[in-house]
């Protein structure tokens, strides 16, 4: 195994302490041992004496369901023991969903149905404006979280890798925003309530991501999320006072 690319990668990951036990958050040298001929043995954590990561044998659908249920073990598996690099694309897509929702509401409130090219261009510009506002609000939310954590626990974010890992966790845990589009497509009388539930779910996921990434108790992540929400709402109020519909 040492001669294979996979073996070299596993050894490098172990040297960096990249693997984590999904039960106790302890560092692990490897997730499993390959005895060839399809025989694999899941590693046992030296701290808690439980399997380091049972999810390596699970179907991705089961892992997704556990992540939706905000299970700590599923979050640790995704954040520490897998190499998922879709957080940037996911962030852009979520912002597009949010911008589309706001743009659609803006068009519904407009009574102008003139098909003139100038009007169509103005509507297209409105979408770009909504995307920019959504991006600024998301940035404010994340900035509020990082300020709170840095103020309360500065040792938690002392390196660039700590910052990047937490940012990745927050972006991945915002996947609930993808539900905005179905909520708008299947519009009914309860759409505002659905949007409120989606917002709450995203905040719960963000809190769980902070808790898992930094191995904290429940209170500090929620404080960070609440402060981030306050800063985000402050940006919303600012745009409203400026007369920019959000």
UniProtKB/TrEMBL annotation:
It is a multi-pass membrane protein. This is Protein ARV. Belongs to the ARV1 family. Mediator of sterol homeostasis involved in sterol uptake, trafficking and distribution into membranes. The chain crosses the membrane at residues 130-151, 163-186, 220-239. It is found in: Endoplasmic reticulum membrane. InterPro entries: Arv1. It comes from the Eukaryota. The keyword Nucleus does not apply. One of its GO terms (cellular component) is cortical endoplasmic reticulum. Keywords: Endoplasmic reticulum, Lipid metabolism, Lipid transport, Membrane, Transmembrane, Transmembrane helix, Transport. GO terms for biological process: intracellular sterol transport; regulation of plasma membrane sterol distribution; sphingolipid metabolic process; sterol metabolic process.
